[in-house]
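User: Could you walk me through two proteins back to back? I'd like the raw sequence and the structure tokens for each, with a short line separating them so I can tell where one ends and the next begins.

Assistant: Of course. Protein one, sequence then structure:
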Amino acid sequence: MGVFASHESVSGTISQRIGAVVETSPKQCYREDTPSARAMAARNQEDTVLTHHAEAATQTAAEEASPMPSEFESAGADALLERILSSLAEDKAEEVVTIDLRGKSEMADHMVVCSGRSSRQVAAISEKLVERLKADFGISSKVEGKDAGDWVLIDAGDVIVHVFRPEVREFYQLEKMWLPAGGTGKAGSQA
């Protein structure tokens, strides 16, 4: 039994030593109570504090650099909306609904939802709108879904445009999510 007791004390000592070793990389080990371990912990804490302060300074600078929308930006969004509506009218888009998103969403100031009679017309409406926005405003719009022609999303910055085939529009009923309660989805309506 004396041999067994000494074995326990030896294994206890080994486990204490193993517990005190912290591995930092596959090639390097050091003890927690050494000066280099304390220095490493201090550097890590300093890095964390400096990173936090740098992120806070960057966020503050970004907030100062992008103030609230001015009247000029709002006028630009309204001019963009008018050009989009005239383009849709020129290309005979149907059931055009304009939804004012100011105060409801940060993604855009306006959303326009309209329909084309076929996949070919939906693609043509979208293509012409993107070309006109590039020519008139220098805006390179982001376009999704043009190849399929069922639902095309055009992100023109301050105005988001959805061009649907009628069946797809009826299925998703996108404008009903954004219209106020009791609002109608009639052609040319504005929310």
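----
Protein two, same layout:
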Amino acid sequence: MAATRLFSHHSAFHETFFILPFLLRLHTAGAFKPRLTVSSSFPPSPRRGANLRKASNKPSPSRNLAFSPGRPKRRTRSGVDFDRDLYRRYTAYGHAPVMLTEVLEVFALPRLRSFVDCTLGAAGHSSAIIEAHRELELFVGLDVDPLALDKSRARIEALLSDGSRDELRAYTHVRNFKYIKAVLDGIDENLLSEGVDGIFLDLGLSSMQVDHAERGFSILGDGPLDMRMDPKGTLKAKDIINSWPETEVGRILRDYGEENNWRFLQEKIVNARKGGGLHTTGELSDLVRKASARSGGRQGWIKTATRVFQALRIAVNDELQTLENAIYACFDCLSSGGRLAVISFHSLEDRIVKKTFLELIEVGEGQEDKDDFTLYKNDKFVTEEQSWSKQIVVGRNGVIFTKRPITPCEDEERTSRRCRSAKLRVIQKH
């Protein structure tokens, strides 16, 4: 019989430990053989330390990110076949796991013994990973949202309820992913020295959050201006809207929302304070709709409102700095040959992921800016089955498998509109 045991609650977070089973059948997408181009030049290797992040006076990527008019989008499709049955199988609570087939291929390592899902959500990706890897010995799921974690924990417990996997240790924590080191050290003090084989971050809002108006994330609902990912957080969106200095409101709209019309919106938001301020998502959406009337059409104001809500959500949760810190921490936690995969959903996140990956692997000076890469194939890093990887960059400390981010296939985009802005980047530690 499989055993289930609930650990005691701790002051910082609580955890659930279950040693339970599962049974697997997984569809595998057909292989597509692209041309591989790789960068491999870099200067002599310096002394390597355990923590690769260096002290620096460089400004955070969250600053000076004003919008710049764009060039046409260059999309790099993964090349994998969209498995509709697999997609439906792992959809739960109205939330579909984005780029699921691609994520499964990323972690199709010869041996995946340990895996950490830093954004557990509805556990769609994690459920598929657990079923795909019978050799898995340790699973850890983190989520800052306790409501989401309760649902995902129940889903994983149900998945592992047939008694066939007594050797699998599975933990779930209500915890921000920036604390991954503390979580792993609390589970097993040897984990940080040995490292884990796979770590995954999906930075998108889940349907469980967007579809509940009381969370304050939806521009079409009418709920309190909250937007906290962690319900225990003290800062709410209404605090920024009604109390922060006018210049700070404008900076948030400009830098985090990349909104061209930020000055006009800043003025409208601050003027609304004279009438008692804005306290609901409906009131903020109405203000944006009226301010955007000159752009014409419903789509115009909705896009503007989406940028305004994004800006406020990033500020409330300090998302960009948290992301940068978390990526460094996750890379430190990887074993040799371990992989970190990140799915981002807007350009600010993707820039941070790209920049941090390049810093982590330490490529040669100027190499990351080259468009023409030395033709190179190394079976240590690339196999023909990795159809999702088109161009790789090799550095002293690791390999980036995605010089340009991978985007969902067209079939998946037609199935789920919410996945259209998703970008997948993958790094592997030497």
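Confidence is low (pLDDT under 50) at residues 1-72, 369-380.

Let me know if you want the two compared in more detail.
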